[in-house]
Amino acid sequence: MNENEVPQFETRAMNGEGKALYAVDAQGNYTVVRSAGWEAEDIVLSQALEECERLAADAHGRAKRGAASPLEYHMYKQRMDVVVLAQSTGYFQWRVRRHLKPGAFEKLSADIRARYAEVLGISVEKLAELPVIT
Amino acid sequence: MTVAQMPFEHKQTAHCESGVMSALLRERGTTLSEAMVFGIGSGLTFAYLPFVKLGGLPLISYRMPPRSIMRGVSKRLGIRMQYETFTTVAAGMRALDVKLAAGRVVGLQTSVFWLPYFPPDMRFHFNAHNLVVYGKRGDTYLISDPVFEHPVECDAESLAKARFVRGALAPKGLLYYPTELPAHIDLVPAIRKSINFTTGMMLHTPVPIIGIRGIRHVARKIGKLNPADEKRNKLLLGHIAGGNWNGWSGVSVFVCGVSAGGGARDGH
Questions:
Q1: What is the complex's ipTM, to 2 decimals?
Q2: Amino acid B242: pLDDT
């Protein structure tokens, strides 16, 4: 890649932050060139973020209907899934999955709630609540 | 509270582990570019690991596993490194403060998600990010994160969380720095060894999912994708192109060059 071929696609997610890429200058030497972003990367990232948002929104809907516990929403909101949440809490996946059901979640002890809240980086009160989203 | 700040020259690099290693060596007076560090550490690879699945998408990696660049560089150049992990958050943060108070610049392994200076859209659960801490002011750590253009700062609480997340590739508070550097570094044999290692792995690995055979394997897989399953195909291709961590990331992506599936699973 030549110096003038370094992609300069303003990537929303990067918040104006540039990236360092290696490219060949006029003398044929490798140098570091600032890149604003790359279109393919932007597409991939948006797709991934949309998927995240969709999962959170679906979970929000389920929790509202009473078909899931708020934990499921908060899990997706923090970009986790059952595997990641289980690994970060140290609970078995089947146990985390059980806690995603409203009945099981209601009966959770304060300790377990505190563990989830800590891992998700939110307060215990917020964990049991479902924020109003539009 | 410890107040310390070492003179430190921040340099943005393309990749976190080689960037941190290069920065730590530079701080000790041994100047090697990031590219040289990446090369001597034999950082390049291709690995397609369909049996390592985090929620639907296979692990694809373009770089060697975390810490292997640091290991490779220190082994081939005769550098002694000190690595420390901790069982408690308090011990890990205390050890960091002690090192900083003693005037040491250290590298840390952290999660990306809990670092507040990352743009929100780039924050995903990738736990093998690397950064340099070069000082502390009050409760704020002064950080040189090699994937950022400028030095950044991070509060103690967030840094503690980022260092002690649990899960895949958990950092366990990993802290590291070079202890002994040789007076003279002979690059030629190190370069020869590292190139031999990389070419050997890329061309002659007996398993069909590593190196050049791995690339061909994935290419065949792409040729055989079912056009009806557009959603999954998109995620998979994005995953390959982006080197996404978690299928839904983008971060580590180009930052760390690892790609593992996850999150964006279908049928949920």
A1: 0.90
A2: 62
